[in-house]
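User: I'm new to structure prediction. If I give you an amino acid sequence, what do you actually give back? Let's try with this one:
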Amino acid sequence: MLVLTITDNTLNYYVDGELFATHSSQVYPEVPMSINFNLWFIAEQIVTQQSMRQYSQDIDWVYFEAKSKLDTKTVLNKVEMLRKQHSRFTDTVPAGNYAAYCSL
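Assistant: Good question. You get back a string of structure tokens that encode the predicted 3D arrangement of the chain. For your 104 residues, that looks like this:
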């Protein structure tokens, strides 16, 4: 599980509840961002086949909460509550100036 927090001019990345990386505000997004799931392949071509390949990803949940610094356990609890309510999709990411909503 990946949790990203943006507070006090610091970006913290947690993987399965453990701090993985910290970055300063110098790497804050400069333009509105979106959430995308991609598979990236380098130019050196790991696979030399020319045939069409198909990949799939199984993303269980993406949870966003503005103006809050949540730990991994809290995120898991909130997602579990949504699962119990049989909520499969709710878009709460505001349109427009995302940076104004993300930083505390």
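You can read the tokens as a compact description of the fold. Here is one thing that stands out. Helices lie at 72-84, 98-102.
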